[in-house]
Amino acid sequence: MARRPGDQDEEALNALDLAGRLDLDEPVLRSADLLVHPVLTRDRQAMAELVRSVLGPLQAARGGAQLLLDTLNAYFDSGCVAAEAARRLRLSVRALTYRLERVHKLTGTNPADPVHRYTLQTAVVGARLLGWPDNEL
Q: How many angstroms separate the CA atoms of 69 and 99, rounded?
């Protein structure tokens, strides 16, 4: 299929918008690397329901959901390596693992368990894309 003039410009703008919502700070982004995200949010209502059902219980944490959501973001962004996530958050590994246990207790999903991790990580990406918890879903 032939591309229309301006398609690449639109792809670039969409990639920049998406990178901004995901807080990506790489100097070069390829739109192909971001293709999974529009797929995840194609059904916005379903993604919002996933975020509410999986991450909603984090709102019961002292101080709200954001601290634990930031912890999950760092954990997943570091390849689920607790020591690296702790370094990124300027925490001890013990403090990080405490937070991950808190997530497990509140949500019933264990970030360290591969069976739970996919659902939890997808919900975390959805929260980033939808601006949750700042934006009501």
A: 10
